[in-house]
Amino acid sequence: MDNRDPVNSSTVLVEGYALNGSRSLYVQALFALAPNQVITQRYFANVNGFEFVFTTGGTGADLTEVSVWGKNSAGQLVTAHRLVTAELLGAGGGGTESFVWGETTFWADSSAPGPGTGIPFDPFSSLQAAVDAAVNSPLAVAIGMRARCRILIAANSIFDENVVIPPARHVQLLGLGPWVLGNSDLANFASSTPRNITIQTSQAAEDVYLVQGPAFDARPVTVIGTFDDGTSVSAHTNYTDGAIISGDVTFQNVAVGDPFTTIEFQLLNARVVGNIVQSGHMGNLNTYLYYSRINTMVHNGLNIQRMVDSQSDGLVNVRGYSHITNTLISGNVTVTLALSDVPPTGIFSSQFGAITWTGPLTLDTASNFYFVNSGSTLVGTKTILFSLA
């Protein structure tokens, strides 16, 4: 039970009936929800048939939702029932019917009056508030990484705030057009006050869900970018249709004890002006960069699984790479492995600045032409694909 009203309280009357030849009331409870409060309740339902009736009331009723899911005797999720607001309020209730976007989808718009409730007509004015609402929604709390939390960001939004994404969650920050994390007070939408995204990691937080069985098994995911199929390689194309993160993206371990965990990260038409930083997180960081531009990227567990139509401006010091194509590599690179995780392995149709590449270098003939003619230096072994020599 979730009261998304930031000001008004609400009530939910829960009535459960066992259907065994007759309709017998066996659950009757009234819950009072404060603004922004979430209540989780469990009931026995191992009967031939059952019916639950939810009646909402109070001034916050229009923004109060209920979701119900079933679990087996082992505590594993076996089914979920999505109940929309109009159903909760009843056929003759006082609610206002509205389109249901899903309980893990929230809207953010920096120009909204705020603070907002996360629905399309009342978006959050703070990006962090939207993230908090998504990751603490009943479904996200119940199934963790299996709940795909989406923050839909209005075009032209400028969020002058730092953002923290907690561990054991799947979070997508996707713009409906260009948006900025920063104060965006300089030319070309650059920011004099950089703002950062911190992605927290914790194997212990993941284990809370993983120990409950296969229905809870998934990896934490963070996606940052836009829906637009543009490119953030050029400064001008970036502010036309991309996302700009003016500061760093940091992967921060918050677990006490084991810092190792495998997580997924994607940039989709985004520019990270600062750095991609390792802060205590250990283990694999599977990274996918599409139509994006980065500065430095240093993480000893980071695997570049895909880097497409992208650009790196500074030092890249990572575990390895699988597939890089149509990319400009302008800074020095240190890698340990040429991976086969996401084939075909290698660097294709890409260019290089005058760099030093340390580690195994697998590339096609076109990319080798640019590597040699740029005056770049190799410290390691080279494999040239499709070479007739």
Percent of residues in beta strands: 35-45%
- How many independent structural domains? 2
- Average pLDDT over all residues: 89
Class computed from helices, strands and strand pairing? mainly beta
The biggest sheet amounts to: 18 strands, parallel
**Coarse morphology:** elongated
Number of helices: 6
Please estimate the helix content. Answer: 10-25%
Strand element count:
35
Give the uncertain stretches in residue-range form.
79-99
Radius of gyration: 24 Å
Distance between the termini: 68 Å
What does this structure look like?
The chain is mainly beta. It folds into two domains: 88 residues, no CATH class; 190 residues, no CATH class. It has six helices and 35 strands. The strands form seven sheets. It has an 18-stranded parallel sheet that branches. Strand 2 and strand 3 form a beta hairpin. The protein is elongated, with a radius of gyration of 24 Å. It starts with a strand and ends with a strand.
